[in-house]
Amino acid sequence: MPDNDALYDVRERTKNPEHASVDDVVELLLERAQHPRTEHRDAHLDEMMATVVDRYGTDPVRTVIHRILVDHYPFRTATHDLEMRNVDGIRIGTAAGRFLTELNAQDDG
């Protein structure tokens, strides 16, 4: 069992329909990867995800996001058996966590 302490407010884990789903997070991540924001404090995440999605494709990225947000995998091991560098799991997990928080905040307000 993964030993990560972070629990995410993602619909598949909480069963709360007001929380963003993994699909919502993946959609936003892919949108930001295709159209990175400029002049934004998180623009570096968008650019980083553009590189990661280009390198591995959408399916492995989606798998890593699900493993981290729902299955409670640590970022560095969420890439297991995906032919992906562990550091890219850290990058994906960082961006996915930030985007999930952003999506949930939009729904709150």
TrEMBL record:
DUF8158 domain span: 1-108
UniProt protein name: DUF8158 domain-containing protein
Organism name: Halapricum hydrolyticum
